[in-house]
Amino acid sequence: MLEKLPGAIGHALHDVRAGLDAIVFNTLGLRQGMGSISVTSLAFADHAPLPPRYTADGEGLSPPVQWTGVPSNAASLVLVVEDADSPTPHPLVHAIAVDLPAGDGALAEAALASTDTPGTGVHTGRNSYLQAAWLPPDPPPGHGVHRYAFQLFALDAAPTFSQAPGRDEVFDALRAHALASGLLIGTCERPDGSIKIDEAAPVGPVIAG
């Protein structure tokens, strides 16, 4: 996929980014006084690199995500994952999960269907590639760090979503019913081939987006 793009293209598009202001969390116009949900992961810290196993450079599994602080009057939850730094007019949608049970909870690793994983039956919406699945992070080489926004929303109702709802359908439901929200950022970066790696340096996670 994008890993085959020349690094020169990534460098040329370095300043072309959708922007963090354009993700659902920041464009929804959340009402004043709306509650805050704590969203975390056992696999990565906030604003830290996603392990390769959750990206296109590894197994491409969806990462584990957990949350606390869901309001007691919530009826359902929605998760939206977007790439705030995609070189596109709008953030690239990597995953949508709807009809999640209300209350504190979690999605286990590989809970969302992906190319080689069936998932665990979560009601999944369409990503930007029109697939009802987890789209593994796959930033262009040389484009820099990409920020992946894991956005969780608590709703005061359980809307009837279509079989594989897209971003617009979910956004309309959130605008009408969102009670509380939470945000977790994971990063990913794919260096271009011109970067020399010090073979004596310790090997660690690659920053990605």
Task: Describe what this molecule looks like in 3D.
The chain is mainly beta and 209 residues long. It has a single domain, classed as Phosphatidylethanolamine-binding Protein. It contains 3 helices and 10 strands; from the N terminus they run ααβββββββββαβ. The chain has helices at 7-12, 24-27, 167-177; strands at 35-36, 38-40, 48-49, 65-68, 76-83, 92-100, 105-107, 123-124, 146-155, 178-188. Strands 1, 3, 5, 6, 8, 9 and 10 form a 7-stranded mixed sheet that branches. Strands 2-4-7 form a 3-stranded antiparallel sheet, with no helix packed on it. The chain is globular, with a radius of gyration of 17 Å. The two termini are 15 Å apart. The relative contact order is 0.26.
Which terms would index this structure?
single chain, mainly beta, Phosphatidylethanolamine-binding Protein, 7-stranded mixed β-sheet, 26% strand, disordered N terminus, disordered C terminus
